[in-house]
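S.,

Sequence below, as promised.
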Amino acid sequence: MKGWWGRILRVDLTRKKTTVQEYDASIARDFIGGRGLAVKILWDEVKNVDPLSPENKLIFAAGPYNGIPLPSSGKLVVAAKSPLTGGYGDGNLGTMASVHLRRAGYDAIVIEGKADRPVYLYVEDDHVEILSAEGLWGLTTFEAERKLKEVHGKNVGVLVIGPGGENLVKYATIISQEGRSGGRPGMGAVMGSKKLKAVVIKGSKEIPVADPKEVQELGRKAYEEILNKPAYEFWIRQGTMAAVEWCQENGALPTRNFSDGYFEFSRLIDGYAMEAMKVERRGCPYCNMACGNDVLDVECRKSELDYENVALLGSNLGIGHLGKVSVLNRMADELGIDTISLGNTIGFFMELSERGIVKDGVKFGDFEGAKQLVLDIAYRKGAYGDVLAEGVRYASEKLGGKDIAMHVKGLEVSGYNCYAYPAMALAYGTSPIGAHHKDAWVIAWEIGTAPIEGESRKASEYKITEDPEKAAKVIELQRLRGGLFEVLTGCRLPWVEIALDIQWYPKFLKAITVIDYTMEEIFRVADRIYTLIR
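The prediction came back faster than expected:
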């Protein structure tokens, strides 16, 4: 096969055994890679199991696009049965681990079983070891990655969990490169349940592609097109942080547990506020439009900001101070907890406190109280840390307030207040993993085609009606965002934010694999994946 290795590294932590499985070319053709390959494996092999049991399988899956110098090709899918939702769960993150996985000669790593003590996995091409992590267990993600690079060198890809994953916080994530996070539905908890602290990968092989010269030429042209796009200059300045102002203007900025779409202090946490604090810009492998904005928080520590974490840990908590929001974001990354679900959970608890449902809680705007809750959740301590570590669905069943628990299928809502945007609500409701924008970020199209006028945008003022055009747009975007980009596996942002033509991607696939996928064939791949997930 060109473009694929056709090889999966299998790791059984219980038996301390590793093997290499070869898979058929028809699977590569029908599922391509990334989410597609992960879904196929989970469908075939994981049935009615406890997500935190040894029988669950944790999968790191790349696509044929990864490890090749093409725009924003440095993503990696992580998937398993979710402890947060009870269904399929996945996420993707930008990481050198994606590049090294492909260079090591694998399309995926599948991990099952449970170690009898903390371990980490070391992969260097065909050499695979399960090593002791007893000196790493309990460390933050930043500390653990630095120590692992002291041992194995800086030219590696590292995937690591923090105390959140070790303590089985249901929305613990997997972290790479001190701030890149993936696996919102509790993939970090699955990793922690297996006593697996980290995966370290180092690869040196040449990835097989069908037409190396065509890949090189397409990459050159696509990178050049991105640089010449009108939106490029402003994107480089603010990245996703520009969405704070945009959501505020359109009444979609999550505010005080999604009770409003406007935040009176939005100017203090928006992209312009970030620009005044920025000390560094970071990006994922093979990206020439890097969106990671490092600022110094109020504790003089670096924190990498994007829109979602600022919206959920800022306006959604009533905190209008970007330096303080940055502390909460950095703590979440260090502890290995998803910032979106964390902001939802703390916001939910703050509203319970405001309503008097809990008597000794934390109210909106209380930064110190929020900091303590982050620690309580990560370590499952304090009066409420244990229950809040389970997510808002469970917490609302125990504490009350089901009507204000913002989730779909158990996954907390990401950073768009969609009470006035029914297509976005539909996208959340039909997302295969729960309320996450990565499958169908339709709100930009919805606002652009049907602007809502007037200063007040309270939900009660709008009549939600059936609209076949909006439903069709959700399906189209799910096929692209949750289909095409999740199987390549690549970042959507060149297409979404810079307007890189979507037709580049079938061209990339043909040059890499020799298979001339039409968009209709790619849509069928997406439909096949969604069918298995559901």
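The chain has 22 helices and 17 strands.

Coffee later?
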